[in-house]
Design a protein that fits this description.
about 200 residues, alpha+beta, 6-stranded mixed sheet, two-stranded antiparallel sheet, 5 helices
Amino acid sequence: MVSRRLWSLVVVLVAVVSPLVACSGAGSSAEVTAETRYVSGGGTVTTVPPEQRRPAPPLRGTTLTGDVLDLASYRGRVVVLNVWGSWCPPCRKEAPDLVKAAKALEAKDVAFVGLNTRDLDPEPARAFVRTFEVPYPSVYDPNGEQLLGFRETLPANAIPSTLVIDTEGRVAARVLGPVDDRTLGHLVDDVVARG
C-alpha cells in the first residue's frame, strides 16, 4: 500500500516538474517536454561562414494583426527571425532583450520578424505582443508549418530560437534558446561585416 502511494506521488511529481524543467531554458543542452512536444535550447549559438550558407525557405503568412508578411520582401536587409510562443517562459524572459535589440539595430536597417508557433488561439500571442510592446510583426503559425521549412537550412528546432538571415536571404546564424540583446547585437554585426 505504501509503495503504491509512493509510486503515485513520484509519477505526479515527474509529470509536474518535467515540463517546467524542459521549458526553463536552463542548462547547456536541449531538452524535450513530453507534454508540449517542443525542445527548449540552452542558448547554443551557431554561425555559418558566407560560403556555406543556405537560402532561408519561403516564409509567407498572416501576422497577428491580420497583415500578410512575405520574408522575401526583406531581401537586401539583415533579418532577425525569432521563433516564440506565448506559453513559453524562456520566450517571456527574452522578450525585453529582443525589443531592446530591435530598437537599437533599427539604425543599421536590421529588420525583426517574429514567428509565433503552437499558440492555437491567436489572442494569447496578441496579449504577449501588447505586454512586451513588441514593435515588429509576427507571423501566426499555430501548427508549425512555416517553421518546418527551416529544417533543410539551419533548423530552429528549439523554442525559442532566433535566426539571423543575411542580405542575400541566407541563414547566417542561429541561437537555440533565449538570446540577450548583446549576443544578438554581436551576431548581427558579424553578419553585416562578413556579408
